[in-house]
Amino acid sequence: MNAQHFRKGMIGSMIAMVGAFALAASVHAGDTAKSDAPAVKHDDVVVRYADLNLGSEEGAEALYARLSAAAARACGNTPMAWEHKARTQYKACVERKLEKAVGKVGNPKVSAVHTIRKEAAKVG
After folding, report:
1. pLDDT, tens digit, for every residue of 23-76?
2. DSSP assignment string, 58-73
3. Dmax over Cα atoms in the chain, in whole Å?
4. Where are the domains of the chain?
5. Distance separating alpha carbons of residues 38 and 34, to the nearest angstrom
6. What distance lies between CA 107 and its chain's CA centroid?
7. Which of 24, 26, 62, 124 is the most exposed place for a label (fewest CB within 10 A)?
8. How distant, in Å, are the alpha carbons of 36, 46, 90, 124 from that of 77?
């Protein structure tokens, strides 16, 4: 009777271990799928700036801040610090979107702010 009870216990333990392993594997696969899946992205983000005076430094800075925020939104959620590849792709996306947006505005003061910020980012 003891041997039969021991076998049942071992079989139960083995089933529990296989189940735990399967659960751990599926959780890991889910995490991998999440980090490899692209974040929600938007092709276009509308930035309104009729309220700004683009002839002033303050207006150009304010628009640049709006464009930067819109570029970040357009590229999706910021990846976590340990997601190095995703962070690199995200930063490149933001830079492309911001470059395009600044070009579309076509204002020399906004372009100057962009150039200064871009150079500062290279140094820092």
Report:
1. 444 444 444 444 444 444 556 788 999 999 999 999 999 999 999 999 999 999
2. HHHHHHHHHHHHHHHH
3. 92
4. 1-37, 57-123
5. 8
6. 28
7. 124
8. 13, 18, 8, 23
